[in-house]
Design a protein that fits this description.
This protein has 162 residues and is mostly helical. α1 runs antiparallel to α2, α1 runs parallel beside α3 and α2 crosses α4. The protein folds into two domains: 92 residues, no CATH class; 65 residues. It is built from eight helices and no strands. It is rod-shaped, with a radius of gyration of 29 Å.
Length: 162
């Protein structure tokens, strides 16, 4: 944890790359489990994010290490980056899926509202709001049911039951 705290401290710009490398070297040497390693590396990367120029300095410093230590440090840093990238991609996919579902639901609500208005003419805003609040399955069921309604009262009853 001391290495994580070091990364939070104010570090002179010319030392940032070297400090980050030293933090990762310490973590690699501690032989922590993956979860703890990723937690500390995430903290370090958040508070000691390097610019492109500093990344180049980091690579120069990394090349100065003995081959075995260099490999260990690289594996430690890369495994975290791979996991962070994978988690970021997964989070992006989930957000995209949620947005797609929301957009699909909004379009379905719009279409069902248009179908209702074709059947009965313009309806009061309260009915439009209630239709928009339905989930996708309910919208689908309403879309099928509305063609069998003769009166707005049937629509209102259906919405009250749902």
């Amino acid at each position: 944890m001391s290495s994580a705290l070091m990364s939070k401290m104010m570090i002179a710009p010319e030392d940032r790359a070297r400090v980050k490398l030293e933090c990762i070297r310490m973590i690699a040497g501690l032989k922590l489990n993956k979860a703890k390693t990723h937690l500390v590396l995430g903290f370090i990367d958040t508070y000691l994010r390097l610019s492109q120029e500093e990344e180049q300095e980091y690579d120069v410093e990394l090349d100065k290490l003995a081959p075995a230590e260099k490999e260990t440090v690289m594996e430690t840093g890369m495994s975290w980056r791979d996991r962070a990238l994978q988690e970021g991609l997964q989070q992006g996919l989930e957000q995209g899926r949620e947005q797609g579902l929301e957009q699909g639901k909004a379009k379905m609500a719009f279409l069902v509202t248009r179908l209702v208005e074709k059947q009965f003419g313009q309806v009061e805003p309260g009915i439009r709001i209630r239709i928009a609040d339905l989930n996708y399955d309910q919208l689908e069921a309403l879309g099928e049911a509305v063609v069998g309604f003769d009166k707005v009262a049937q629509l209102t009853e259906w919405l009250e039951r749902t």
